[in-house]
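Input.
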Amino acid sequence: MPQEELLIRLATSSDAEAMTGCIELAYERYVPIIGKKPGPMLDDYSQVVLRHHAFIAEFDHHLVGILVLIKHQNGLLLDNVAVHPDYQGKGFGGQLVSFAETEAARLGYTELELYTHELMIDNYQLYKRLGYIEVERREEKGFSRIYMKKHLNQSIQ
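Output.
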């Protein structure tokens, strides 16, 4: 019997509510750590889907995660990657980041940027293991963020 594969597809407006639910569950453990809801929990995903490159990850017909890429004047930002708690620790987060890198290269970008809250140490460590380097720390929108970047191998296009 073949193993199910992770399906990553472009999100639609009808996915916004499920995306919000996934993000609420994925980030709720950080609320007591940082003392307030993290930025992704504050976004309106009906608008995110319309304005940005938003993706849904499904495994065995279940929503396991989301990914949001935002174009800006200096490049492409991996704004959000979230995995539902029931599916964390199974490699789906890494697969979503890899997809983001491939998508960025496909769109012609040579680097992918991201940020994480400085108190989300596990995320910071994951991104370092995936080859991202810290480029800046700054206070932004009331959050202490660590910005990271990765140079993309253009052969993955």
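The chain has a mean pLDDT of 92.
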